[in-house]
# Entry
Amino acid sequence: MVPPGTIDVHAHYFPRDAPPSEVIAGFPRAPRLVIDSPETGRLVRGTDDFRTVRRALWDVPARLADMDRAGVAVQAISPVPVMLEYGAPAAPFAGYCRWVNESVARAVEDGDGRLVGIGTVPLGSPPECVAELRYLSEVLGLRGIEIGTRIDGMELDDTALEYFFDAVDGLGLAVLVHPVDGGGGAVRRSGFTYDFGLGMPSDTALAATALVFGGVLDRHRGLRIAMVHGCGTFPWAYPRLRLGAQIAGTHTPEELDLLVSRLYADTLVFDAAHLPALVHRFGPNRVLLGSDHPFIPGQPEGGLTDLDSAAEHLPPGAVPRILRDNALEFLGLSSGELVTDHFSPIKEDHYGTH
# Structure
């Protein structure tokens, strides 16, 4: 039986209105939106243009229309990664995060049950961060937090971040890990092709390595963490990392395999042949549909087509889990909390055994 609707866990949103004046006064380069036409706008930092964007990034009806065309029932919307400005002044950045989270919550309300909110927090300031985690969870009803692959130069296993993982674990919030544009210096070549094609997936792999080999997942057994872009290069590097840890005597392969199986990864890998490898590495219960909407041309349609093509090479029942069930578990939701009467574009015969 075809699931009643697909869930895309990796889609971005930007507020239409301007950040509060007190935020701009203390954080002049706070990313903001300039709308240039009914269909396009620009993200800017201070007086510098960052990138051109299209209407679906800020306009909920346009987003829902895109989702309808692709056959996506529900999206989890998260901030654009450029908004994860952890090096910004503490107080203005805390205000910026509050502005972002409240705008995400309003978009979710306007989405008529088809949007799920993922927020952001000022990770560099523990008191403000914990307060914002509670506010976005208990008051705004957001379901998760997006964080960068590094936090103001710190790897994710830095002891200074333990308070954050303690808090999200206790609150039951999902964590979405996203690289920043440029790949965080993970490769030695510069330019968009290298930054986008190698830097971001390499940076994501380094973050996953910190979570697995640095003890974060071992210390926080309740964490639900998803790595975007298929967890970058990690699925292919992991066997060698595992062997290195075994040779060094720091971990057993069995211990590491168990930790890796707790990570979620999305399907945004741009090649149907890679999808069986993702399912092999993380398991059929840990792969999620992701599109990077509305930034990547041809997505989410291309990703759904790839999943359709790969379905015969996946374990029985894997496709409906990837399209919906795994996302519900990651986000801590029941199916009754979401709109369910939207179709799935994957062929019905892929939902049984093969």
Notes: Residues 105 and 139 are 10 Å apart (CA to CA).
